[in-house]
Amino acid sequence: MTNDDGIRVIVGASSQDYTGWIRTQEEDLDLTRRSDWEARFRPGSISRMLAEHVWEHLDLAEARVAADICFDFLRPGGFVRCAVPDGLFPDEAYQRIVQVGGPGAVDHPAAGHKVVYDYRSLPALFAAAGFEVRLLEWWDAEGEVHTVMWDEREGFVYRSARFDHRNRDGRYWFTSLIIDAVKLAMTR
Ligand SMILES: C[S@@+](CC[C@H](N)C(=O)[O-])C[C@H]1O[C@@H](n2cnc3c(N)ncnc32)[C@H](O)[C@@H]1O
Asked: How remote is the C-alpha of 170 from its chain's centroid?
């Protein structure tokens, strides 16, 4: 599926299904398995990738491999929009849910969480892979939330300050650490 804006890919899509985007699942496009990518895409050919609450399921070594693969398969100017749980969101219930391993039960959605990131560690991971990183939504160490206006047509993140329906009555219940990791250089 291509359009004037190039190839757009959702990784770890689960039920996400957005017009103009190719949905992929871990089983057919594993973020850490280069051969999966080589079988489907040309290096340097993808314009947008969307990964909502996927990267925290990779350990740090896998997360770096995944960032490297994304860099290689993005075209210059392309980016990965990556959203993960925010380790600095000052809410105990949220942190219990998103913590490494999840809150106990193996069938809990967070049971597979291997890393909890913040506004320093996630950008550092992508910067090490050669990306220029733009923070879009994050909590700082002083407990303040920051949101930059981002275009949802370039990658819709439901679990965000703006779109998550749990956020209401002037209070945030669920936000994400969201970045655009942009490929500006041709090579790492
Ligand atoms: C919490 S779900 C999020 C699903 C979807 N992105 C959403 O926002 O509803 C985590 C997803 O990450 C995927 N995932 C985990 N490890 C992956 C990997 N190595 N490569 C690609 N996807 C992976 C899982 O298969 C699962 O679909």
From this structure: 25
Q: 12 is in which domain, residue-wise?
A: 7-182
pLDDT above 50: residue 2: no
Asked if the structure places residue 1 within a domain, the reply is no
pTM beyond 0.90: the answer is yes
> Residue 123: inside a domain, yes or no?
yes
Report residue 86: phi and psi, to 5°: -100, 115
- Answer yes or no: is the C-beta of 163 below 6 A from any ligand 1 atom: no
Question: Which atom of ligand 1 has the smallest separation from the CA of 51?
Answer: 6
Does residue 56 line the site of ligand 1, with CB under 6 A?
no
Q: Is residue 81 part of a domain?
A: yes
Q: Answer yes or no: is the C-beta of 57 below 6 A from any ligand 1 atom.
A: yes
Reported as a single tens digit per residue, the pLDDT across 112-171 is 899 999 999 999 999 999 999 999 999 999 999 999 999 999 999 999 999 999 999 999
Give the count of domains, the chain. Answer: 1
Q: Helix axis angle, 121-128 relative to 60-73, nearest 10°?
A: 50
Distance 11 CA to ligand 1 centre (A): 7
Place of tokens 């930059």: 148
Domain CATH number, residue 102: 3.40.50.150
Q: How remote is the CA of residue 3 from the centroid of ligand 1, in Å?
A: 25
By the 8 A CB rule, do 172 and 86 touch? Answer: no
